[in-house]
Amino acid sequence: MMRRRTVAFLSCLMTIAIILIMLTAGCTSPTGQGGPEGDAKNRTTEGLPSERTVKVVATIFPLADIIKQIGGEAVEVTTLLAPGSSPHTYEPTVEQARAVSEADLMVFVGGGLDNWAVKLGTAGEKTVLLEIMTSLAKEEDSGAAFTDNPHIWVDPVLVKERIAPLLCGALKSLYPDGAASFEENLKSFQQELDTLHKELSELTAAFSQKRFISFHSAWHYFARRYGLQEVASVEEFPGKEPSAKWLEELVKLADLHNIRVILAEPQLGNRAAEVIADEIGGKVLLLDPLGGEGVPGRESYVELIRYNAEIFRQALQ
Predict the structure, then answer these.
(1) Cβ atoms 80, 90 nearer than 8 A
(2) pLDDT score recorded for residue 33
(3) Do residues 157 and 190 share a domain?
(4) Same-domain check for residues 285 and 180
(5) How many domains are contained in the chain?
(6) Regions of the chain with pLDDT less than 50
(7) Which of 175, 199, 223 is the endpoint of a domain?
(8) Rounded to an integer, what is the distance from CA 122 to the centroid of its chain?
(9) Is the torsion defined by CA of 296, 297, 301, 305 positive or negative?
(10) pLDDT recorded at residue 40
(11) How many angstroms separate the CA atoms of 271 and 262, rounded?
(12) Is the residue at 252 inside a domain?
């Protein structure tokens, strides 16, 4: 009984601490209204020194690494989600709330993936909030490119053409003196993405199997880009355990499409995937949409996409 009271008391203290940080730091309105460049110019460029470090907080590692590729030494990037964590079940710590309150820019995906960032981002008086999905949806020709699926970063072409330029624009607004460097880094990164896209196009074209079953629908944009088809996902909704009836249906779909590999993820429990694999006489392989620093073979955005392409090759070739 005493232990339960202590845990409850500590949890209460953490909640109060986060609220106090948010109150003392002040509030700001969410991004998506007027665009990231307009917000940044209006709120953070006045009185900036000629040389500075732009403090950026990103919810997930892929976004954080893309920002580092563009910003170089002019940016200091903090990633909120630790490797192996899921944005669907994330809870901020007091230290992370403080980091957000001191940031110039907070970048999150939106679209239901990490919308908790809106509340967390209001902790900073000067913090500009950049929601990727909302910002890209405002572009005139984005309708054909995006669906309501928020996992847009798994397509390197979308990163090259939409996401990276958007992030570059936000950094230039926050630090105009670094604009030329940011543009140069962007072009270099885009060339690297061109090379990556060519590699993946050649790799996936050789797959004998095009259909797959994933644990959850994180691979829509990758599949569409490279001519693959996600037949179904084990989790119909993030965090919702699949029913016995749905597992039975997945076994039938796997047999129908001659699928013998179930693609799971390290951020999510794999028990249901293993059950299906046992039923179909197949196996489970791990895709990873998030990666992270210290994760072998997935410590940069480009490495992460190459890793996943190799897993697809093992599953579909």
Answers:
(1) yes
(2) 35
(3) yes
(4) no
(5) 2
(6) 1-50, 142
(7) 199
(8) 20
(9) negative
(10) 36
(11) 11
(12) yes
107 close to 163: Cβ distance less than 8 angstroms: no
Which residue range is the domain that position 123 belongs to?
A: 31-199
For 22-37, give one letter per residue: b (16+ CB within 10 A) or e: beebeebebbbeebbb
Which pLDDT belongs to residue 123?
66
Tell me whether residue 22 is in a domain: no
The angle subtended at Cα 141 by Cα 136 and Cα 144, nearest 5°, is: 90
Q: What tokens does 300 get?
A: 């940069």
Q: In sequence order, what are the residues at sequence separation of 6 or more whose Cβ sits closer than 8 angstroms to the Cβ of residue 150?
A: 109, 110, 111, 112, 113, 133
How far are the Cα atoms of 160, 189, 307 from residue 195, in angstroms, in the given order? 11, 10, 15
The confidence score (pLDDT) of residue 39 equals 37
- Work out whether strand 283-286 and strand 54-58 pair parallel, antiparallel, or are unpaired: unpaired
Domain match, 210 and 193 both? no
Residue 164 lies in a domain: yes
* CA–CA gap between residue 151 and residue 161 (Å, rounded): 16
- 302 in a domain, yes or no? yes
Cα separation of 113 and 299, whole Å? 21
Same domain, 74 and 143: yes
